Amino acid sequence: MTKFDEATQAIRVDETTYDVCLDPGYQIGGPLNGGYLMAVVLRAVVDDSPFAHPVSTSAQFLKAPVPGPATVRVERIKTGKTAAFTRATLVQDGVAQIETLVTTATLTNADPVYADGPAHAMPPLEECVKLPDPKPESNMNMNAQVEVVFDPPSIGWLSGAPAGRPESRAYFRMAEPQDPDPFVLAVAVDALPPVVFSAGLRGWAPTVELTWHLRALPAPGWLTVLAGGRLVADGWFDEDAEVWDSTGRLVAQSRQLARVGRG
Fold first, then answer.
1. How far is the C-alpha of 23 from the C-alpha of 38, rounded, in Å?
2. Strand ranges for 80-152 from DSSP E
3. Which tens digits make up the pLDDT trace of 98-157?
4. Are 259 and 239 in contact (CB under 8 A)?
5. 197 contact partners, CB below 8 Å, separation of at least 6
6. Residues with Cβ < 8 Å from 179, sequence gap 6 or more?
7. Which of 55, 69, 178, 192 makes the best surface tag, with the fewest CB within 10 Å?
8. Phi, psi of 244 (to 5 degrees)
9. Which segments of 120-232 does DSSP mark as H helices, in order?
10. Rounded distance, CA 190 to CA 194, Å?
């Protein structure tokens, strides 16, 4: 079991309840990363489901959970021959923190009938760059859990020269050697800096709603994450992400609605 497996572990208490412990290692300046929180919820949902994979997840982030004990309450809405539908709620101190609707099924990685390619060609890994190490007092603990190397033009904001359009592109993997799986993909779709940084807007940008789809089981190796937005207005922005595995297969897609960064 890897550290990530332990950090997302869900222990069944009864037919509808799982105990979890939210790991401070996934803090991003204080709040816990939304992708990590979805992975925790999905551990419980998949354990409860007769199917192996979370193919569709829609999460409403009601509050910002803090590290420590919490529970996941699951309610199976319907179970069919090929898919099951579950409502799952992350609860901490008796208060609902995240509400999700999850569809589980079993993927076989059959050859696609049609498959498009990525909209942007990434440079070779050796031409990409890491962000500077954060200051210890910043609580950017998640940086130690993952490896992310960026396409340089998509992090111009770091040197005061943002691209002027919402975008972010990087290679991604867990810091501890681990083949990517659906739970790692839940982190990957929300692992990059908010795309509004490249539009010149910095600060904590809390996710309000995030939906992501598991499209295939990823091959071992680095993942490629391509993210962009279409509209930044009235204090809100959208962010679409695609995740491609080391063989060039599309393995995950997401869309989120978030608030423009504060401070």
1. 13
2. 84-92, 95-105, 146-150
3. 999 999 999 999 999 999 999 888 999 999 999 988 887 788 899 999 999 999 999 999
4. no
5. 155, 157, 162, 168, 261
6. 218, 220
7. 69
8. -115, 140
9. 182-188
10. 9
